[in-house]
Structure formats: structure tokens, C-alpha cells
Design a protein that fits this description.
Blueprint (H helix, E strand, L loop, with lengths): L3 H5 L2 H4 L14 H13 L3 E6 L2 H5 L12 E4 L4 H18 L9 E7 L1 H5 L2 H10 L4 E6 L34 H6 L5 E6 L3 H12 L5 E6 L3 H4 L6 H10 L6 E4 L2 E4 L1 H4 L10 H5 L10 H29 L1
Parallel strand pairs: 1-2, 1-3, 3-4, 4-6, 5-6
Antiparallel strand pairs: 5-7, 7-8
Helix pairs in contact: 3-9, 5-7
């Protein structure tokens, strides 16, 4: 993994591209995710933002927080708009060679509602076409901007305004769905590991074709925990094995360093520590906790199988 020293030696990374004074809540996982993504990408980015918290936290022109081109867009149109912007960049690069248009990256930065639910049709279409864009989902596991309603990314047992007794269904595995499109690059990240975010966006920047990055981004008011605990909450998600960090680079599955210890069940933190730190799980039953543990075990069995397949293939 890249070191902090290496990041600080990067002039692009030392600059803040998502500026202070924005309207993010204290402890917002979205802000951490976007700041570190942009430290890796730099100024040659045009960002499309479907309806989400990110539309409202950037502020009103001419005092907006992004120090790069940013376009607010309808919920369902994030991936389609980014695909169109990329086509425009390529046309400009063809007509005006040497003017830097070939350096531009088109990126969608969407919440889980605009990705796993309302935006999934456009996302799937762009992935199937292998559109040359980066699609990012910052996942706070509900429709936070419109009143904390459940999304298909909301986990089992979580209380929202539309699941007052806890959600019955489990979280949709969007990274696996995107990977099934056979795209060049898929990765998961967590705001608790910013250097991992930086490294994966650096890699994605230099890959052509459709790239998908899914970032675990806790929300203090939506999840019910003190704003200063965002990093601890997201770190627990990784350390319990609930949120594995990995990348699939041109079909090759790689487990990221912070998650490798979770291959050993004895080295995983107890999932109860993660659940009881959030008010949204204050109604969760013993049975639901057991379901959580079973689901985590199932996830890691699948990861071990994938790693074994990869190892046998390399031989």
C-alpha cells in the first residue's frame, strides 16, 4: 500500500480539491471519500452528481466547494451523463490534439440510492458498453438527503423512516453485480483507510474502460452515532469482515491488505461491537445478529474460494 510520505510528496495530493466550508454534516463519510478520491485524480476531472447529499453540500455558485467541473444531474442519469461527457472529451481531443482534452476523466459520484436503486439501469448500460468513465458509489446505506429512507444498500435490521422495525432484506452486493459485467476494474474502499482510497483511484485513473469504486461512507445523523466516531465505525465494518476491501483488476481478484487478516475468523472483531455503536440497530434481535454473523461467514467462504481459484489459475 502507498505510504503517507509518498502521498505528501505528490503535489496533486497536497492540494484540496473539495474545499473547506462546504455544507457536509460533521463527521460526514462522503466528504472524506471525495477529498481523498480527488487527491488521487487531480484537476483533470469532470464530476457528475446524481440527486444525493452531494448535490446540496457543495454550496451555491459562485461559492461552491468543488475546485473542478461538477454537474448536478437527475437521479437516474448519472452514468449516462458521464458517458456523454466522456464522448465530448474524446471528440475535443480528436479535433484539438495536444490541448489536454485527452487527459480529462469523466466521473460519476453517486449515493447508494442513485446507484443500487434508481441509477442501476444507467449504470448497467454504461458497464455493458464499457464506457470510459469512473463510477463511484459513496455508500451511506440509505436515502439520507430526503429523510433517511431505506435503500437496497441498507443492511439487515437497520431502522430507517421506512423500516421502523428494522429492514428485513440484506444489503445488495453492487460490486459483485458490476463485476459480472466483465469490466476492467472494480474496487471497494472505506473512509477508515484513506490511503487505500488514494491508491485505488490512482490505479483507476490510468485504466481505460469502465471502472467502478464502491466506498463505505458512514453517516452520523442517519446511523445514530457521535460525529467524531466516523472513522472508528467504518474501521469496525472492515475489521469485523462485514465490509471486505478488495479489487478486481481485469478479472484478477485481490484482497486488500487491511482485510487480509479477516481470512482468519479468530482475527475478526465481534460484529456486536459494530452494531451496538449505532442507534439504527437499537431494535435488532438476537436472531438478526446471528443472521449477520452467518452472512459474514458466507461472504468470507466465497472470498476464500475466489482466492483459491485465482491461485490455481496462476499456477
Amino acid at each position: 500500500m502507498v505510504s503517507l510520505k509518498q502521498v505528501m510528496e505528490d503535489d496533486i495530493a497536497c492540494k484540496e480539491w473539495f474545499l473547506p466550508g462546504n455544507a457536509c454534516c460533521a463527521g460526514c463519510g462522503l466528504e472524506i471519500a471525495l477529498r481523498w478520491a480527488m487527491k488521487a485524480l487531480g484537476k483533470h476531472v469532470a464530476m457528475v452528481t446524481p440527486a444525493s447529499c452531494l448535490n446540496v453540500v457543495i454550496g451555491l455558485w459562485p461559492k461552491t466547494a468543488p475546485d473542478f467541473p461538477q454537474f448536478n444531474m437527475a437521479f437516474a442519469a448519472g452514468a449516462a451523463t458521464a458517458s456523454g461527457i466522456d464522448a465530448a472529451f474524446k471528440a475535443k481531443a480528436y479535433k484539438f490534439p495536444g490541448k489536454g482534452w485527452d487527459k480529462m476523466v469523466s466521473m460519476t459520484f453517486a449515493g447508494d440510492g442513485g446507484t443500487t436503486d434508481i441509477g442501476i439501469q444507467g449504470l448497467s448500460g454504461a458497464a455493458e458498453r464499457d464506457s470510459d468513465i469512473i463510477y463511484v458509489c459513496y455508500d451511506n446505506e440509505a436515502y439520507m438527503n430526503t429523510g433517511i429512507q431505506r435503500s437496497s444498500s441498507t443492511p439487515h435490521g437497520a431502522v430507517t423512516t421506512t423500516t421502523p422495525f428494522g429492514k428485513e432484506r440484506f444489503k445488495k452486493n453492487l460490486p459483485a453485480i458490476v463485476a459480472a459485467h466483465d469490466v476492467p476494474y472494480v474496487a471497494t474502499c472505506s473512509v477508515s483507510h484513506p490511503l487505500d482510497i488514494y491508491e485505488k483511484f490512482k490505479k483507476a485513473k490510468d485504466i481505460k474502460g469502465f471502472r467502478y469504486i464502491h466506498i463505505f461512507a458512514p453517516c452520523p445523523p442517519g446511523w445514530g452515532y457521535p460525529s467524531e466516531d466516523t472513522i472508528q465505525i467504518s474501521k469496525l465494518a472492515v475489521d469485523t469482515g462485514f465490509w471486505p476491501l478488495y479489487e478486481i483488476d481485469h478479472g484478477k481478484f485481490n484482497l486488500s491488505k487491511p482485510s487480509k487478516k479477516c481470512l482468519d475468523p479468530s482475527k475478526r472483531e465481534n460484529i456486536i461491537e459494530y452494531l451496538r455503536a449505532q442507534k439504527r440497530f437499537n431494535q435488532i434481535s438476537e436472531e438478526a445478529i446471528n443472521y449477520w454473523q452467518e452472512n459474514i461467514e458466507k461472504t468470507w467462504k466465497e472470498i476464500k474460494i475466489e482466492l483459491e481459484i485465482q491461485e490455481n489459475y496462476n499456477e
